[in-house]
Amino acid sequence: MRILLYISDFIIPAMFFSIILYGFAMRVKVFDHFVEGARDGFSIVLNIMPTIIGLMVAVGIMRASGALDLLVWLIAPFARRLAFPEETLPLVLTRLVSSSAATGLLLDIFENHGPDSLIGRFVSIMMSSTETVFYTMSVYFMAVKVTKTRYTLSGALLANFAGVAASLILTRYLY
Amino acid sequence: MLNYLWSGMILIGIVVAAFTGRIPEVTNAALESARAAVTLCITLLGIIAMWTGLMAIAEKSGLVASLSSRMTPLLSYLFPELPKGSKALEHISTNFMANILGLGWAATPAGIKAMQEMQKYCHDKQRASNSMCMFMIINMSSLQLVTVNILAFRTQYGSANPSEIIGPGILVTISTTIVAIIFAKLCEGRVNRS
Questions:
Q1: What is the pLDDT of residues A82-121, one digit of tens each?
Q2: Residues contacting residue B57 through CB under 8 Å, at least 6 positions apart
Q3: Residue B194: its pLDDT value, please?
Q4: Which of residues 51-80 of B touch A (CB under 8 A)?
Q5: Fewer CB within 10 Å: N-end or C-end of chain B?
Q6: Residues 6+ apart with CB under 8 A from B156
Q7: CB-based contact, A21 to chain B, within 8 Å
Q8: C-alpha distance from residue A73 to each of A77, A87, B13 (Å)
Q9: In terms of domains, do B66 and B151 share one?
Q10: Which chain B residues are closer than 8 Å to A111 by Cβ?
Q11: Does the distance separating the beta carbons of B158 and A115 come in below 8 Å?
């Protein structure tokens, strides 16, 4: 399992190295393309900034008012039966519906528990291996006007629950 | 969706605050969160720009295209209905590769084109074909190797080693994709027999 931690350390330098080397071999102007791409990155962040502000304010209000604690308290009995960290349940459920709302809750967890706590690591891994199922499905199927989606939803939900469970087990095992 | 979720969060928050007597805290939280969101976005700006810059090199040098074309043998196992060398398979491989590399903006257009191409092989235009179900389930099982956003958030909140979650994240991503493929293949089999 140590290999996973090696991968974590090496993947970003390895990607830099191989992409730049490949670019050189193909004789493209690597730095010019980097700058151009980085500029696109700016517009991506500027586009999501208002959404992040809006949702962080909403989560902040939920946290300060005690509504988030109330929600956790309400669902805690279910979470305990599944040996699931109850503070993360709102995040896990929101993740299926909205990526940006989930980000708001993720940051709240980082703020209150720290990114290096057991919960912080669990949600980091979970967020990187699950997807906004309902949103993605509606975008793709609406584009081709398919209404009978058959087993797509159950398959996607199954894969995502497997992801949540695997993240939790792996976090407990590794750290 | 977000309209309901967002209004619900704020309205419920304020009602609860009125009962718990925490209205002043709500004011502070709103102001403080808005400020924190901008600080966060500045960190995000740096890290995302670095990543999209690097990925632009990968795209412009043809690396992304060459990696996606290497996926074809695997794709013909996953999508037996689609003829080899078809436009549909090409868009699917672009979408998968873009998802693996975290190029969300490149993934969605390719994915929609893939769906439109797959629809050409359907008899019933309103019913998802086996290929469409396979494609969607794999797509939603999450494929991304490095989630830069999460790295940026972890950096912003003072993680000692923001990247330590990449390796475990990859392992979980691979397992969810395997679960997705097995499930889709089992469902296809059941449909074919009936």
A1: 889 999 999 998 998 888 889 999 999 999 999 999 999 9
A2: A19, A20, A23, A28, A30, A33, A34, A37, B63
A3: 47
A4: 51-63
A5: C
A6: B39, B40, B43, B44
A7: no
A8: 8, 9, 15
A9: yes
A10: 157
A11: yes
Domain hosting residue B3, numbered range? 1-43
Are B10 and A61 a contacting pair at CB < 8 A? Answer: yes
Range of the domain at A58: 51-174
Chain A contact set for B29 (CB, 8 A): 57, 60-61, 63-65
Q: Is residue A7 part of a domain?
A: no
Alpha-carbon span B162 to B147, nearest angstrom: 11
The per-residue pLDDT of chain B, averaged, comes to 92
The answer to whether the CB of A171 falls within 8 A of the CB of B168 is: yes
Q: What is the pTM of this model?
A: 0.91
pLDDT, average across residues B101-105: 81
B172 and B119 in a common domain: yes
CB contact under 8 Å between B13 and A62, yes or no, is yes
- Does the distance separating the beta carbons of A146 and B150 come in below 8 Å? no
pLDDT digits (tens, 9 = 90+) for B132-184: 999 999 999 999 999 999 999 999 999 999 999 999 999 999 999 999 999 99
Q: Domain for residue B93, yes or no?
A: yes
**A19 CB near a chain B CB, below 8 Å?**
yes
**Distance, first Cα to last Cα, chain A:** 11
What is the number of domains present in chain B? 2
Are A115 and B154 in contact, with CB atoms under 8 Å apart? yes
Q: How far apart are CA B144 and CA A125, in angstroms?
A: 12
